[in-house]
């Protein structure tokens, strides 16, 4: 029995799960969203959140170190400024190495600290989301999910419901109008085809009639 054993095994060994975590987090940072199984997404969502928190914490600690140095001196001159820059670089490097030990990719770690983490500077948590998909995976029928960052979700949630309803109604109205227009064009094309067919049939009958009359005269 697995009493007091936290986490999912996912049918893998410990080293395989570690490699899987690294690959999933790297793909998420590179592409912004990935499609994986629901179990994997739920298992590694907290790890992605912790990475972003780690990068955000680095900025907080750098600011604290700067404030501490400024409080210990009366005037900030060139030498003090150099000391501040050195301390900030030292703190950032410490947190950078912690993230690098997980990702094992220098470029993606730079992206985490310079692009991803600043986007969520004012957000207290919930940097990722897991959206279940209706279609299961072909082969083993495993439930799938979209594992992504929450970019743009705040703007969608803040949109007024009335405006959203109004936009939905306008969209439905446009779709109905477009559908009617296409149906009308289709009927007109069918009428034109039928008219041309009747004309051809009439011409053929007249031609046959002329041929019969000629034969009779002969």
Please outline what is shown here.
By secondary structure, this protein is mainly alpha-helical. It has helices at residues 14-31, 38-72, 78-103, 106-119, 153-158, 161-217, and strands spanning 33-37, 128-132, 144-149.
General description of the model:
The protein is mainly α. The chain is 72% helix and 7% strand. The protein contains six helices and three strands, in the order αβαααββαα. α2 (38-72) runs antiparallel to α3, α2 (38-72) packs across α4 (106-119) and α3 packs across α4. The radius of gyration is 34 Å and the shape is elongated. The termini are far apart.
- SSE pattern: HEHHHEEHH
Task: Please tally the β strands and state the result.
Answer: 3
CATH class of the largest domain: Alpha Beta
The proportion of residues forming helix, as a percent range, comes to over 70%
Features:
single chain; 218 residues; mainly alpha; 50s Ribosomal Protein L17, Chain: A; 2 domains; 3-stranded antiparallel sheet; 3 strands; elongated
Question: Topology of this structure?
Answer:
Layout: H1 14-31, E1 33-37, H2 38-72, H3 78-103, H4 106-119, E2 128-132, E3 144-149, H5 153-158, H6 161-217
């Amino acid at each position: 029995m697995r009493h007091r054993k936290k986490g999912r095994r996912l049918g893998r060994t410990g080293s395989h799960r570690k490699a899987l975590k690294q690959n999933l987090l790297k793909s998420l940072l590179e592409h912004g969203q990935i499609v994986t199984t629901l179990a994997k997404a739920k298992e590694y969502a907290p790890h992605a959140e912790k990475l972003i928190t780690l990068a955000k914490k680095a900025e907080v600690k750098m600011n604290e170190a700067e404030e501490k140095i400024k409080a210990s001196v009366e005037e900030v001159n060139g030498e003090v400024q150099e000391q501040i820059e050195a301390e900030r670089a030292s703190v950032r490097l410490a947190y950078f190495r912690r993230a690098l030990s997980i990702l094992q990719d220098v470029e993606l770690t730079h992206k985490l600290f310079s692009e991803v983490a600043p986007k969520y500077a004012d957000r207290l948590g919930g940097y990722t989301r897991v959206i279940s998909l209706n279609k299961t995976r072909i082969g083993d029928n495993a439930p799938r999910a979209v594992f992504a960052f929450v970019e743009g979700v705040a703007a969608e949630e803040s949109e007024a419901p009335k405006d959203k309803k109004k936009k939905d109604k306008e969209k439905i109205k446009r779709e109905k109008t477009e559908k009617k227009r296409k149906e009308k064009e289709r009927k007109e094309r069918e009428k034109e085809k039928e008219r041309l067919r009747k004309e051809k049939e009439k011409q053929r009958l007249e031609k046959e009639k002329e041929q019969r009359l000629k034969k009779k005269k002969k």
